[in-house]
Amino acid sequence: MSTFPIYRPRRLRANENLRRLVRETTLSVHDLIYPMFVVHGHNTATEISAMPGCYQYSVDLLVTAAKELAALGIPGTILFGIPEVKDPLGSEAYADDGIIQQAVRAIKDTVPDLLVMTDVCLCEYTDHGHCGIVEAGEVQNDPTLELLVKESISHARAGADVIAPSDMMDGRVGAIRAALDESGYQNVPIMAYSAKYASAFYGPFREAAESTPQFGDRRAYQMDSANAEEALREVSLDIEEGADILMVKPALAYLDVIQRVKTEFQVPVAAYNVSGEYAMIKAAAENGWVDEKRVALEVLTSIKRAGADMILTYFAKSVVEWLKN
Ligand code: PBG
User: Of 43, 55, 69, 110, which has the fewest CB atoms closer than 10 Å, so is most exposed?
Assistant: First the structure.
């Protein structure tokens, strides 16, 4: 490569048209998945205090919100359910009349083209708030797989387009894939939360999904934030077990992991720009300390630049408005 003064990098930064022509990464509405929370009841939308602009919707208002997403051109949503009653085995998670199952059917009836992804986990549904069956104070891996399988099949039966297990039990992708295939859902993809870290950035989500663990934490099943090689092993296992889309979560503090997954395995990569990442920008912007639009677009672009093909983000609707201007 030539050096200064032959090569002057500033030549291609002189105006917006030039900058656009040489831009390496572009964020588009097609990259975005908008997460939504659904509760029992009618005509309710309760704003989540640590996530301004995000709501717990009853099914009827969720459908209205889904219509808005489709109108904005956002390809899909991922749904999280808050049950009527929590119990030790999280029974509503796999009940055919559970809140998610109702929500999926209602959206698919009204806005059939919007992709409906469902988070498969038990923490929102269990009274102890852990992502699996608890015995002797510990989350049991293998017995939990059966419940996750039942939950996934129930979601597929309701019409879910993509099944997204987020529990971090070992072997769950393989178990879910086999069960989906056996039940006639060979064409329903799995988006696996493969490298999901035990992260403090999930704080606001736990208010939104009412899923704070009642004792202990999730470090015995979610990953240690110091580990990147382990993320590659997790991803490799999930690919072998049949995952179609591999997710890294959170996104901003794990850009290196996103990049390594994308370069070492040529697979579709999703990144989850989680609740705490959203809340930080919102809070700083409300204080007038940062420019929300510019900071959010910079962060989301960096997630794509790192190698994500798609981003789950609470900023999705705002991004569509921002990209218009
Ligand atoms: C369920 C789940 C969580 C998130 C997505 N699925 C919370 C957790 O693992 O504690 C977090 C999403 C966010 O923070 O936006 N297991």
Answer: 43
pLDDT, one tens digit per residue, over 30-40 is 999 999 999 99
Collapsing DSSP to helix, strand or coil, 214 comes out as: coil
Alpha carbon nearest to ligand 1 atom 6, residue: 166
Is 67 labeled as catalytic in the residue annotation?
no
Domain 25-324 has CATH 3.40.30.10: no
The per-residue pLDDT for range 206-234, each reduced to its tens digit, is 888 889 999 999 999 999 999 999 999 99
| DSSP states of 153-197 | HHHHHHT-SEEEE-S--TTHHHHHHHHHHHTT-TT--BEEEEEEB
Q: Which of 77, 124, 139, 202 to mutate to test the pocket of ligand 1 (most atoms within 8 A of CB)?
A: 202
**Average pLDDT, stretch 280-301?**
98
Q: What angle do CA 249, 254, 258 make, to 5 degrees?
A: 80
Domain coordinates in residue numbering, the chain: 25-324
Q: Does the annotation mark 108 as catalytic?
A: no
Q: What is the rounded CA–CA span in Å between residue 147 and residue 144?
A: 5
What pTM, to 2 d.p., does this model score?
A: 0.97
